[in-house]
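Subject: for your reference before the review

Hello V.,

The reviewers asked for a structural picture of the protein, and I figured it would be easier to keep everything in one thread rather than splitting it across files. Below is the amino acid sequence we used in the manuscript, unchanged from the supplementary table.
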Amino acid sequence: MIQQPSFSPLLLVLLLAFSVPLVLQRFKRLRLPIVVGEILAGILIGRSGLQLVTDQDATLNLLAELGFVFLMFLSGMEVDFSALGITPSNNRARPPTTGQAWSPIKIAATSFMLTLGLSVLIGLGLATAGLVRNAWMMALILSTTSLGVVMPVLKEAGLSGGRFGQTILVAALIADFATMLLITILVAVLSHGLTFDIVLVGLLFVAFFLMYRFGMLFFNRIGAVRRTLEELSQTTARIKVRAAFTMMLIFVVLSEKLGTEIILGAFLAGAIVSLLRTPDDVEVGHQLEAFGFGFFIPIFFIMVGANFNLAALTGSAQALLLVPLLLLAAIVVKFIPTAIFRINYSWRETIAAGSLLSSRLSLIIAAAAIGVKLGVIGESVNAAIILVAIITVTFAPLLFTRLMPDRSAAAQQFMVVVGAGQLGLQVARQLSSHGENVVVIDSEAPRVERAQQMKLAALTAAIDQPDSQATPFLDKAKALVCTYSDAETSYRVCHLARTTFGIEHVVAQVSETSDLARFEQLGVSTMNAALDRASLLVLLARNPAVYDLLTRTDDDKEVCEVSVDPGTHAGKTLRQLALPGDVLILALRRDGELLVPHGNTRLSEADHLTLVGSLEHIEAARRMFAGAQG
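And here is what came back from the structure prediction:
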């Protein structure tokens, strides 16, 4: 008689997954990452604790493996190819740098190469001392970082935009991807030796490019297919979510058939989804994250804790000695290479970057698990690695926030208008009339002088490559408007703004409709007179009052968008807000969806509100929603 699987262990794991965030929210001062809480909860119920869950449960093992795959998949989806300048229509070289400034990719790549070199030396030293079995696997384990930790920490500190934040993000991305690739190659060597099978890893990348090209042709360029997908996405079919799951499993199965590690296949599948998705697919990304972080991924981390072998760690003097050595090595291999950041940044920023990049989590745990399966890492060493991951992911972000206090309000100060032609000057004057701090940048001195004669802040600087004159303003830009009519010049300006300075909101006028796609794939908001003129005329015909409100600058009325401060207003209903003066809330944007608010609408973190009111009261509302006083 076939024994039916019991769902009791799964229920226990899901109860913990539900309870851990609630408990950590109650004790905010601990500032313990939810993932760490999940691992600790797993230790409590697992082999080192109450032994309520074992690694013999087939259902939990399968779901934990899916959680691991989903984590790698979502890591691939996190790659912002437009911010890196790697877009389908952008095969050009990055703009050259001037002076001694290095591009984010150059600094990040150099830093990782130094990290890898140091890790190899330390791995060889540990192997020579008899503390580890395989120097190369330990070197790759030490080389990892955690993009999933780096990204939210930078966003919370208001540093995800700007060169500094972009450099850290690119460094984390390169470390994660290169380490996954090298682990895949090492696994092939350890499993099959130096044979032709290693070349099979390259077939994953062939499949990646073929699938990307097929996806671009089939999903994005055939109108009938695109319309069908849009229609089915709004029904219970959720066809785009199904397509993403299918893509993930195609690459996982392909990795299995090729004898390579599934982490690389899952990551590449996520990268394809990131490349193919459009601004209209924001909700699909949120749905996939809900599946992953709401169900599969917590099971993975709880099972990591459940399988944690505390007895093997405490029972081995060698493993206990390895913990401080690994912790020291994990710090050294990140702090010393990130000294290269000093070329572009201050010592304070350089040390902060080293601290954040030294945090490890998912990939180091995954790499250690792979090592255990291959027999090159013992149980005690695996337990030591997990403990080091818990320590670094807890304390490294805390040190970073100490060194780099929240600059979300101060770092984004300027509206940058590129081009001091007639259109650029009109845009700059209207932005100034709305109370914005505007800077006009142009490469031609006579045009800049004309802007200065109009009492506008303007400077002469290169517009399509880093320039020391413009850098301080671009580093602190909350938006950039490119007014050049030449498509190639405009694209280079937007490319620089998005990839080097990480400016999230970039606007450009695009004359030719054939150029719209590559600007939008770069993450640029475009205005095309041929397409937008009709919409503006319709708005004027149907809603003249709204059109006047949006376009007139000769009265004291203002329309603006603000973000909700999570610590002050999240969770409140609109009727509970004491809005200043005559300010009204016109709309609410949440997760890419535009909502019509009412009194009982409850605010959530990262909501964006569209406000209307007099200039004086709008400024008070901006301070209110930013969490400032007065």
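For the response letter, the relevant points are probably these. The longest strand covers residues 557-563. The chain has a mean pLDDT of 77.

Happy to draft the paragraph if you're swamped.

O.
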